[in-house]
Queue: 2 jobs
Job 1
Amino acid sequence: MSELLVVPALLAYGEAALAYAGELRGPGLAGRLATWGVRLGWLAQTALLVGQATSADGFPWGTWAGALNLFVWLVVGAYLIWGCRPRYRLLGLAVMPVAAFLLALAWAGGGTGLDQGDDSGLVLAIHVGLMLAGFASLTLSAGMAGLYVWQERRLKRHVRRVLRVRVPPLDALDRLAARGVLAGLGLLALGIGAGAARFERGDVDAAMVVTLAILAVYATLLVLRHEGWRGRRAALLNLCGFALVAVVLPLTHFAQ
Amino acid sequence: MTRLILVGVSHHRAPIELRERVALDPERSAALAAHLGQEAVVLSTCNRTELYLARPDDAEELAVATLTDLAGDRAEELGAVLYRLSDEAAALHLFRVAAGLDSLVPGEGEILGQVRGAFEAGSTGPFLDRLFRQALHAGRRVRVETAIGESPASVPAAGAALAQQVFENLSGKRILLLGAGKMSELTARNLVSRGAQIGAVANRTLEHAQVLADSFGARALGLDELREELAIADVVVASTSSSEPILRKADVAAALRSRKGRPLLLVDLAVPRDLDPAINDLESCFLYDVDDLEAVVAETITGRRSEAARAEQLVASEGERFRRWQASLDVVPTIASLRALVEEIRDSELERAGSRLSETERKHVESVTSQIVAKLLHLPTIRMKEAAAAADGVVYADVVRHLFGLGEEERRV
């Protein structure tokens, strides 16, 4: 029965995605409805995950669809930290449509069902959990980088409506995106460390190489930022790193 | 029945010469309200002076006479510009005023504090207390539920609002003023009010720069000493009378090397422009000239007007709520009389039965009869209040008075 919790979660995320589009016209009711959609959807998804965790024999999110389910929950949960503030609502326009789409994909792929799981052990569960949390952090960071590029362009072009749509200040977006990268890197490093415990010679595959490339790109971003690469250039590099996370990594991972 | 009377003059029809004659400072407003007695509130701002009176008698002439006294030798002009509103219309007007919808710039925020001040200094009773509390609620609701007060309505405020689009917190952000003109000073004051600090004032004439710099606790510079300050400033505000640009792209580009990517907002209020437009092409530099700022202001004022339509709906709903409350006052005496009659009957019957009942039984019967009375009277009370809101209240009240013989005892006496 609790498997059906995916339906209210999906509906609430979908409602939030639509309502955030309404927030573009100006702050008000649409933004508040969107925030409540995110909150209620996340609670429903949390209940679903709890149901999965209690009914499964092993780690319930070991499949690609299950991992996607957990990933969406992490992204939305992290977004809720900022998303409830009126000025950060527009970030939801970047996050919630993606979250709704990915949750629907996870559902279609059977990642939201009960009584599924594999007995790969605790180490794998920790490895997957940390890697997903790291990617969730990088996803949010990319959302902020995208918002930075959009708002910077509006300010540069002297868009007349620049003050009518609530967007976080450029300074804050830049700083939070960097923090997201830092947190993501830390989680990825821990996840890789946990995975290394089960690593054997000859296990190297394309996904591992891409993951290390992702680590290198984001580490470079942090170093360059320290040297003065802030603002637009940092945001663009962040988006390049995210392209690796969102496109190349799944392709290499699931092609195996 | 208590009637609400509003008599006033405002910027819509009265010229400033007349408005300043009837304008009162907070102390004199409070004194006048006390002089007018229960219940009176005097709301006096630079745009309006209004008297709100709630009395059982017709207080309109008293209010007009008071304003005429204040106008003194310009009293003759008053008749043509004076407005008189009563009851629901007067309440709705106050709600619009509190929401900033009657202001020169729709949604300006200062008026809500002025309404609160007038209320606190007024000579209020239950009627005006309810009216002004609801007006303050309406004003707050409009500001929370619409974006009417969020956008800047002037060029200096737009400059400050743009700075808040770039920097998370203006607290401690350093401002460089180029020129000691009025516009740059206004913009600087707007930024300072949001937490920024003036780092330096640069001017061709150092003495002029020194005067303005002293007022902000900043340092004064000549226009040839900008390079060092450009490296550490966060916002540059320019308004000199120079016919040539003061800062060129190369000057700013040179300063950017030591800024480590920190953004720089440049606001050029001068005509001819002080800042080379090509500066906007530099990374992390955002240059706005006076035309850009005026376009932003025009757009935000348009936005305020569209938000004003939503605000009007909110105010209208508050007006309707007040009308219902005021109408319910028509039936309140009847409801009170009916309850008193029923309670009197209950008490006398309990007293008659008292000797036949033990203490426990008496308490039990008291409790039961009290509940019966409350349940019996609940629906008629609700229905009478509903009827009052629909303008049938007096008819219903008369019927109830007739059926239960309310007031007949008093008439017989």
Job 2
Amino acid sequence: MFKGFGNVLVKELKELARDPKILLGMVILPLLMFPVIGSIMSYSIQSAQEKAEKTPLLIVNNDGGNWSELFINILISSSVKVSVENNTVITNDTVLELMSNYNTTQLIEIPTGFSTNMTQHFNVSETIKATLSFYAVFSGSGAFESVGSSVIDNLASEFNRAVAPDAVKTDKSTIIKGEIKEGVDPAALSGLMISQSIALPITIMILLTYSMQIAATSVAMEKEEKTLETLLTLPVDRFAILMGKLSGSIFVSGVGALAYMIGFNFYMGSLTAIYSRAGTSLDLVSLGLVPSLFGYFLLGVSLFVALLSALALAVIISAFAEDVRSAQSVIGYIYPLIFIPSFLLLYLDINSIPFAIRIILYAIPYSHPILASKAVIMSDYWTPTLGIIYVAAFTLLVMYVASRLFATEKILTAKLKFRGLRKRGRTPAE
Amino acid sequence: MSVAVEATDVVKVFGEIHALDGLSFTVSSGEIFGLIGPNGAGKTTALRVVSTLLLPTQGSVKVFGLDVVDKASDVRRIIAYLPEEAGAYRNLSGWEYLEFMAKFNSKNEAEIREMVKEATEITGLGERLKDKTKTYSKGMKRRLLVARALMNKPKLAILDEPTSGLDVLHAYHVRDIIKRYVQEHGVSILLSSHNMLEVEHLCDRVALLNKGKIVAEGKPQELKEKFGSANLEEVFAKVVGLV
């Protein structure tokens, strides 16, 4: 039954091992891609922690008693940089003004009655607890936004350990788009936003890779079947041929972006509903953390131009591949440019990433829909707008290069090769 | 009789390879001219230069007096090119494919209909033209493509290995189409083939190509007599010193 198995296996391994596309795609790329992602993630976690520790913590002392003084002294003796402001009523306006004055995004209010409650906790009943109010600005940028919240939890625990277990509890509120949302824990909110935003990069990855494969196959098929060769000898402008191919792709992009937006809108609605039914106070719609109609529009345009740039690139690259198989393999090398930004921006705030890598991410057109999706939720319309302008310019450049190449015989004679790895491959005379 | 193709000292270099090395030949109007030779002789390269796909490195090619480099757009209006082993769009029906190609040659609906009707008759595929081309056999596909190349009655049809890989029946049909079209419409044909026996019966004149150069040229009968050979294969073998 297995007669000849070994022979076939050895042949198969030889063929696969000698194919540079498999070596690069299956071995070298994963070996490089994951360490790169891991290193950047590790750097970002570290920098988020450092940032949280270095960010000045503003204490608004509305209590003025002994216990509040003790709490502040404990904070000062820890590594946290503390500033203190006395007797200020906490409102939307005062919180924002104070944060702006002290250049911070985190504030703890020691409310009136803190010391009284502490005293009663010890003298009357342990069920009486003193409360601290914590306010943090939510920027919706990354997974490590909750680090600040956890630092506060640690400080409260430290105080409790020093005086009495469970004497102090914290009430957390989040400032979203300049408005205090009472009882919304920034860490929980960050977790919810992350769980929700997982779908975005994944869907974008699928959409981009799938449409690039379709475009590449379409062009490579023209080459393989020699229908392109026939077209090039017809009384038709070569630029018209290129634009015809691209317009087909533009149509596919448009339909893809539209389908995506409809699906995304449904997803946002259904997810908010699930959280509401579970009894949590986190309702993204009432918190204003869903894109506006204009935000949806910008996100759709951003996705459309990114798709278009991907398709244009796929058309050009595949025009220089010998056949469908080669085109699909070559297109595969663009995938890390889609996957790496998607994975990174899923978890990280772009501003927490090292400068050089940040520039690279901005330069990759496929980062921009993901950046746009985060920005529109926070009503930041400049990020998607600038991204759209950049990606549109990139696409025009790619199309210009393509039109120049289509005008020459290179469209027939040029072949993408792995120089050095494969020795054959000269254009045959026949 | 006017000159359909005039190639003069054509050189085409790919890197270090001289695919064409001083190629010169002429094709008269209304003539079937065959470039024949083994694989790698430069036949396809020569046809691609004539059909404006490749630029000659040196030399010149004129089609009905139009230079293929300077007047490429004008040349494309009067030629039809059929690449070797070409396919059609797999998800279009044969009829849709013919209509699509006809629209490049005319904007006039009546003319387009006429071209498609003409091609429909040439193919002999009947009702099968309504099926997607991916369901066609190799022979059916070739008949479709030959019909496409001839349907607008080009002044010059350039056919690369028009019967390559076809069985006897399909090859006979394709050869018959070519002959008939030349007789009925005065179309000039420049074709290539490595099947020297077939070309003997199809072409008015032939040029034998080897390593990018013409090693013999003339009417098949004249060449056989000149080299005292029974067929063109023997002529070629003698010319290149194989026997």
